[in-house]
């Protein structure tokens, strides 16, 4: 705390003693250069913290100051004017004051992108329109260099033939050490402590978390500024590695800036799930006074049916499906089979799925089966899709797709299946199927099967 105040006082003192600014109305020729001394410095339309933010500067960036007024500095950025708080500016030595060099025309050369994704813009400047994006490791043809506000830009042509300007900070003449025969790998964040690693305006999508916390600082103990839902995009600015974990400074669609864990961010737009918008009735078998099958280890089927159903519900809801559960408790009144079917009809379900675990007198019985009935719709296709994905996810023995006269399937007028996700009567399998990890795999299998079915 004390250190911070000292820094600000020192910065203010320097600002007052060393800066020479022109008075309003005089030519901009008296402009001077200054260095940004804040991690993010807002550029505002007018002097004052309530004024509209036009853009931001990063720490260490050298900017052109045109005028000073009541603790605010008018600056030029990307050919426009704005205001920043003078507190966060440090003067730059006279040598750095030399005016921007005219474009340096050099012989066309091949340059390679070092950022995760590099924006190619209409004009040199981070506020200029993005024409296209070039991925890490890809080559561009370099034509000329221009220095704007202390930043170097290169006029380049992409492999697809587009001309534009890219920041030279993310270009290198050194070819990446990769076998030429292999296709270009997906742009993946790499664990290198350098910052920044990408130019602003690279879009990242929230994956793997239903909602991603955006924090004030790159740390899980830092306060949460806002949260971004799965699938939504954020603008990526820079990467920082803290205690071996990668963090990204991002801006949300609502304009909030903060830090997010990179584990939940991807440059790949997440696929739209085909279950999105569908109504799925999940029927955890048994319940109440009916425990279903009971294992030698005292596992009750009704309990693990509900646990697995809840895992499935979570996946489906996060993918945008409407989920109705026939029961949500293990202790409530036992639901009749006809009542479960009535729920399916009432909500005009797109699919009804009843979740069970199996039991047999032979305690060596093992594996998964999916049951359907021939009466309604394309149930066989639904059962096949779910069974295939269940086996893929769990690695269990495939007992196949079968027809059977189970009430909830037979009398259901919507495509419906009943899954038996493993044998509670098999002591080894009982231990496995009682784990959250197994139930999550089974839920993922059903989820994937449903998506394939709706595709
Ligand atoms: Zn059962």
UniProtKB/TrEMBL annotation:
Q: Name one GO cellular component term.
A: outer membrane-bounded periplasmic space
Which PROSITE patterns does this entry report, sorted A to Z?
SH3, SH3B
Molecular-function annotations in GO: N-acetylmuramoyl-L-alanine amidase activity
Give the UniProt keywords, A-Z.
Cell wall biogenesis/degradation, Hydrolase, SH3 domain, Signal
Membrane spanning stretches: none
Domain (SH3b) spans 31-93, 108-175, 201-269
The stretch of residues making up the signal peptide is: 1-28
Is Transmembrane one of the keywords UniProt gives this record?
Answer: no
The GO annotation for biological process reads:
cell wall organization; peptidoglycan catabolic process
**Cross-referenced SMART domains:** Ami_3, SH3b
Q: Where is this region: Disordered?
A: 175-201
Q: Does the keyword Cell wall biogenesis/degradation apply?
A: yes
Domain (SH3) spans 29-94
Q: Which PANTHER family match?
A: N-ACETYLMURAMOYL-L-ALANINE AMIDASE (PTHR30404), N-ACETYLMURAMOYL-L-ALANINE AMIDASE AMIC (PTHR30404:SF0)
Q: What is the designated name of this protein?
A: N-acetylmuramoyl-L-alanine amidase
């Amino acid at each position: 705390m004390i250190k911070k105040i000292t820094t600000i006082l020192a910065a203010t003192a320097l600002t007052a003693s060393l800066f020479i600014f022109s008075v309003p109305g005089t030519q901009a020729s008296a402009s001077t250069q200054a260095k940004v001394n804040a991690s993010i410095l807002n550029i505002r339309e007018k002097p004052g913290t309530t004024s509209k933010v036009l853009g931001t500067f990063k720490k260490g960036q050298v900017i052109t100051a045109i005028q000073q007024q009541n603790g605010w500095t008018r600056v030029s950025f990307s050919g426009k004017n704005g205001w920043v708080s003078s507190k966060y500016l440090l003067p730059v030595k006279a040598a750095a004051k030399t005016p921007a060099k005219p474009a340096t025309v050099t012989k066309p050369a091949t340059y390679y992108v070092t950022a995760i994704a590099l924006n190619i813009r209409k004009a040199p400047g981070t506020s200029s329109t993005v024409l296209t994006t070039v991925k890490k490791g890809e080559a561009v043809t370099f034509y000329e260099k221009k220095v704007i506000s202390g930043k170097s830009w290169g006029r380049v042509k992409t492999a697809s033939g587009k001309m534009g300007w890219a920041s030279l900070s993310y270009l290198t003449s050194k070819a990446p050490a990769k076998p030429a025969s292999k296709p270009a790998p997906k742009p993946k964040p790499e664990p290198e402590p350098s910052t920044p690693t990408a130019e602003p305006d690279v879009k990242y999508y929230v994956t793997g978390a239903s909602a991603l916390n955006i924090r004030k600082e790159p740390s899980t103990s830092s306060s949460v500024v806002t949260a971004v839902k799965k699938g939504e995009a954020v603008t990526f600015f820079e990467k920082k590695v803290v205690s071996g974990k990668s963090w990204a400074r991002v801006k949300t669609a609502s304009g909030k800036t903060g830090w997010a864990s990179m584990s939940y961010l991807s440059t790949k737009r997440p696929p739209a799930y085909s279950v999105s918008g569908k109504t799925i009735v999940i029927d955890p078998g048994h319940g109440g006074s009916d425990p279903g099958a009971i294992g030698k280890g005292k596992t009750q089927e009704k309990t693990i049916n509900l646990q697995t159903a809840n895992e499935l519900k979570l996946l489906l809801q996060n993918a945008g499906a409407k989920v109705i559960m026939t029961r949500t408790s293990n202790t409530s009144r036992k639901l009749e089979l006809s009542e479960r079917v009535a729920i399916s009809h009432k909500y005009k379900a797109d699919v009804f799925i009843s979740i069970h675990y199996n039991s047999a007198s032979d305690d060596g019985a093992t594996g998964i089966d999916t049951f359907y009935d021939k009466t309604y719709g394309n149930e066989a296709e639904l059962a096949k899709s779910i069974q295939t994905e269940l086996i893929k996810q769990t690695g269990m023995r495939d007992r196949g797709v079968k027809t059977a006269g189970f009430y909830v399937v037979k009398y259901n007028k919507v495509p419906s299946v009943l899954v038996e996700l493993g044998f509670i009567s098999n002591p080894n399998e009982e231990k496995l199927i009682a784990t959250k990890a197994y139930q999550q795999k089974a839920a993922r299998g059903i989820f994937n099967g449903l998506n394939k079915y709706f595709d």
